[in-house]
Amino acid sequence: MTETRAGFVALIGEPNAGKSTLLNQMVGAKVSIVTHKVQTTRARIRGIAMHEDSQVVFVDTPGIFRPRRRLDRSMVKAAWGGAADADLILLLIEAHRGLTDGAQSIIDSLRDHAGKTPVALVINKIDRVKAEQLLELSQQVNETFPFARTFMISAEKGYGCGDLMDWLAAEVPAGPWLYPEDQVADLPMRMIAAEITREKLTLRLHEEIPYQLTVETEAWEEKKDGSARVDQIVYVARPGHKGIVLGKGGETIKAVGQAARAEMVEFMGRNVHLFLQVKVRENWLEESERYSEMGLDFRDGDA
């Protein structure tokens, strides 16, 4: 009988290092939102990849940064919690940015959080620099920590991801699979749907507003024809933000709804009827229920 393997792999790094892009590349489906804005991954999203007889469960942690607000502190605590629970850790750094102060700070913290968990260095976005720069960066970073392996990849284009996947599949512990073979994420569809809508809002809006809003799936109704009715609320922190999210004549929220619905249909493989409301909830950043919806612990944000 063939031996199966299964384990958790934590993706850590600075915001925008490409963790969500790598997760989606490895899983082959979009389970984590990817935007040009930093700090968009709030909850620890698990994406599940099958590779030969191995099941590799990726934990996409929020980017690790210097926290200012309660939400920031909860996100950073969640990131290190994801690393502590994993069988393997992947540290992503960006090839064109090199060993930044932020990356060095994460490496220093790894000494406290990694324990005996193997850590691999993944240098991402290699298509942005020359080969000699990559070799210098690899040598420089490997002098700072005893990495188990070093991989050079482009998560967006897939370069080097096959070798990384081969290694992960061989390194996760022997044992039964943790999830059904055809499952790609362990988040409820309600939360994935909310993340899809939040991504579209983040792409559409600018400045601070995306970090001052959250999306919750208020109701989910299964229809007899196989479709689903999804009702969501976009909570904003200030009255002035509501008008910006709605847009002139409601054009912004309409465009967001159309884009989100199209992605939900593609993800779920069935028709979706999406209904969005925008509500002002000035103190949502201080409400424990909102954190639970995002898969975060409100108490982790205590200063």
From TrEMBL:
Q: Where is the KH type-2 domain?
A: 205-282
Q: Tell me where on the tree of life, at the top rank, the source sits.
A: Bacteria
Q: Which GO terms describe its molecular function?
A: GTP binding; GTPase activity; ribosomal small subunit binding; small ribosomal subunit rRNA binding
Per its UniProt record, what InterPro entries does this chain match? G_ERA_dom, GTP-bd, GTPase_Era-like, KH_dom-like_a/b, KH_dom_type_2, KH_sf_prok-type, P-loop_NTPase, Small_GTP-bd
Region G5: start-end pairs: 153-155
Q: Which residues cross the membrane?
A: none
Keywords of the record, alphabetical order, are: Cell membrane, Cytoplasm, GTP-binding, Membrane, Nucleotide-binding, Ribosome biogenesis, RNA-binding, rRNA-binding
Q: Where is this region: G3?
A: 60-63
Q: Which GO terms describe its biological process?
A: ribosomal small subunit assembly
Q: Where in the cell is it found?
A: Cytoplasm; Cell membrane
User: What's the protein's topology in the membrane?
Assistant: Peripheral membrane protein
Q: Record's family?
A: Belongs to the TRAFAC class TrmE-Era-EngA-EngB-Septin-like GTPase superfamily. Era GTPase family.
Return the protein name.
Answer: GTPase Era
